[in-house]
Amino acid sequence: MRLHNGSLYWPETEVDKKKYPTLEEDITCDVLIVGGGVAGALCAEEFSRTSLKTTLVEKSTIGSGSSSANTGLLQYSNDTMLHEFIEDIGEEKAVRLYKLCLEAVEELQQVTETLSHTVEFVRRPSLYYASNKKGVAKIKKEYKVLKKHGFKVDLLDKEKIIELYGFEKLAAIMTYGDAEVNPYRLVRALIDKAHTRKVSIYEHTEIKEGGTDGEYVRFESPKGTILSKKVIYSTGYETVPFAEKLGADINRTYAITTTPINDFPKWTNRELIWETKRPYFYMRTTEDGRIIAGGLDEDKREAPLDEDIIKDRGQRLLDRVKEHFPAYNIEVSHAWAASFGESDDGLPFIGRHPDKEKVYYCLGFGGNGTVYSKFGAKLLCQMLHGIENEDAEIVRLYR
């Protein structure tokens, strides 16, 4: 599956890329992680702090899949609002999910502080504004429920938004505790950290499951065999048939990076900005003074090959940025399209396969997949150590 196309920004920011070998021998391990994107990297880092002998395999190069097209917004708020989740799965589970996501952002910060080089992790507030009159009611309802359950949140009216940002919106909420990151650097730094802790990493190693061999699951590659007691599939949006069976869709989206500017008047705190309209437009800034913006989601699975389509969508996204901040002297420097997955209920798929006791999944489907993957890695680590966690019920595969 073609996960992205166009001019990607993040890979250009990482110059010194450590290379890992291709599997060319027969090995055994306690845990095999399949996939070298953000979910796999977070799982590898989590298991690297345990006594379990862990191996990770990536069929291409580390971070070259969806993670290189990720726009790096880390939000505890979901594409599905908290009050909407409450209606769907109940108040207790919904609030717990949001708190798990907030905890995951905190834990991501703690992990990044241990990494050997910067991944541009910065805590940011989020501005979530009403796109239209219908969105105002949603914003006010979300404000009340967030406030009720102890989340730090402010309600902004039209006048306050104009005062702070210069653009006109009917209402917005400001939430606190989110962050931004360079997702490509994050993946590579997590893998490097896991490797220093004796996790075996293999690139350019495509494997196929070949049944069981006693207490092990057998995997075959062109030049070697892996026997593992447990396996975690963190293959993201390439897990298409399985994801569809669980209840998920694969669509495509677009994103741009702009040329850098020196400062951001009327965007003082460089909040993560997004809207209530679906599909929604969003934007953030980068460490070197660029703006990343995304949206224009389409009900098509793979990124388009036609560069003119990507160029057109990139210009549309730039126009949206300039609607908010017309004084900014910026142009598009990078534009790309990427596939992304969304579950039918807005939740990730994390946990053990119901019919295969040795097989687990960490699929962080949704707009905040990195955050989902962080608490997913922690949850799976507990599971594989025999520790029960009632949160597993919220994100189990078949629900």
Automatic annotation (TrEMBL):
Task: Return the Pfam families for the record.
Answer: DAO
Q: Which InterPro entries match?
A: FAD-dep_OxRdtase, FAD/NAD-bd_sf
Q: Which UniProt keywords apply?
A: Oxidoreductase
A Gene Ontology molecular function term of the record: oxidoreductase activity
Highest taxon of the lineage: Bacteria
Note whether Cell wall biogenesis/degradation occurs among the keywords.
Answer: no
Record-listed E.C. numbers: 1.-.-.-
* Ranges of residues in domain FAD dependent oxidoreductase: 30-383
Name recorded for this polypeptide? FAD-dependent oxidoreductase
**Native organism:** Jeotgalibacillus marinus
